């Protein structure tokens, strides 16, 4: 089932703030904790956000046009196929039992430029699917190798990094 979560951001006082939303399938976050916060406050838990993304994100949102929505993808690895996971379950899994969770995120600006509609479409597929494509498995192993310890902690996969990489390349 593909259902999109919806969030509404409002621009005032030079900042984008989350003012409303319907989030049925959160990936380890709770809408009630984010409502009213600026986009920078929402993303503070993301490693290196302050240094790498904070200077760019609001400017990028400001430059969007209502005629041209944008999209991006995000990924995470979970130990369950459940799409409603507002908190990290703490459960462990072997690599072949992980789930690849992807988000297709869109941003659409209102014609008056004061609002952004942010949608999130979530999917969960068995992580084992990647083993069907040796090049994809190798590329993702390189991605995992490249992640900082703080990003591995944020994604909750630091303890399983070596096992995940081994699973992908063997």
SSE diagram, text form:
Elements (H helix, E strand, L loop, with lengths): L3 E9 L2 E8 L8 H4 L4 H4 L6 H15 L6 E9 L20 E11 L5 E12 L7 H13 L2 H6 L6 H9 L1
Antiparallel strand pairs: 1-2, 1-5, 3-4, 4-5
Helix pairs in contact: 4-6
What does this structure look like?
With about 170 residues, the chain is α+β, with helices and mostly antiparallel strands. The protein has one domain: Beta-Lactamase, CATH 3.30.450. About 30% of the residues lie in helices and about 30% in strands. It has helices at about 30-35, 40, 50-65, 135-145, 150-155, 160-170, and strands spanning about 5-10, 15-20, 70-80, 100-110, 115-125. Helix 4 (about 135-145) runs antiparallel to helix 6. About 15% of the residues are buried.
N-end to C-end Cα span: 32 Å
The neighbouring-strand order within the major sheet is: 2-1-5-4-3
Radius of gyration: 17 Å
Helix-strand sequence? EEHHHEEEHHH
* CATH topology title: Beta-Lactamase
Q: How much of the residues is beta strand, in percent?
A: 25-35%
SS summary, helix count:
6
Q: SS-based structural class?
A: alpha+beta
The CATH architecture comes to: 2-Layer Sandwich
Number of strands: 5
What's the domain count? 1
Report low-confidence residues grouped into runs of 5 or more: none
The residue fraction in helices comes out at 25-40%
Mean pLDDT, nearest integer?
Answer: 94
Instruction: Give the C-level CATH assignment.
Output: Alpha Beta
